[in-house]
Design goal:
There is one protein chain. The protein is an alpha/beta fold. The protein contains six helices and five strands, in the order βββαβαβαααα. It has one domain: Nucleotidyltransferase, domain 5 (2-Layer Sandwich), CATH 3.30.420.10. A five-stranded mixed sheet has the order 3-2-1-4-5, sandwiched between helices. A hairpin with a 5-residue loop joins strand 2 and strand 3. It is elongated and about 60 Å long.
Length: about 170
């Protein structure tokens, strides 16, 4: 199983994007003066386009290890290759201990400063456009629920594997 993983932060404050409106009727987007936020760990299955997601209040080594355990539970009988960025919390002692205890999970790190290579970034972008841009939610929990629901109910096709012939290679072994 090849997965691409990443984290994203969701703020109650709406982000703006262009929108159609009637001439002379400027759309209004309410702004939240606070900086309330929550975080999401996500992993995109590059073969199916399905997302595994975990909401959290922190991003650190302990939470990263919990997310890796979740991936092991979601794919209980398969070797997993996780493509991940080089965030410091992805390489701490808890993550290393978990990897040593579960050799069927391997991590391949993207080159430094290369978010454009990570398909999970496209998932965050699509979900923000669908849920958090120009939103009118008054409560962070409600916005986060919508964000998570979009992630878990939407398929995010990824052409990365097809570009490199992975799908054809897998078909040879089925």
């Amino acid at each position: 199983m090849i997965l691409a993983g990443d984290e994203a932060s969701l703020y109650l404050q709406a982000t703006l994007m262009r929108v159609w409106s009637v001439v002379g009727q400027t759309p209004l987007v309410k702004c939240d003066a606070g900086r309330s936020k929550t975080h999401f760990y996500g992993a995109l299955n590059l073969a199916t386009g399905q997302e595994t997601v975990m909401r959290t209040q922190q991003m650190n080594g302990a939470v990263s290890a919990l997310f890796l355990l979740k991936l092991l539970q979601v794919y209980p009988d398969q070797p997993i290759l996780l493509l991940w960025d080089r965030a410091k919390w992805h390489q701490g002692p808890l993550v290393k201990a978990l990897l040593n205890a579960h050799p069927r999970l391997e991590i391949f790190f993207f080159p430094p400063a290369s978010p454009d290579l990570n398909p999970q970034e496209h998932v965050w972008k699509a979900t923000r456009e669908a849920v958090s841009h120009n939103h009118a939610q008054a409560k962070l929990d409600a916005l986060a629920d919508r964000f998570e629901q979009h992630l878990t109910t939407t398929s995010f096709p990824c052409s990365l594997l097809d570009l490199h012939g992975y799908s054809a290679l897998c078909a040879m072994f089925n």
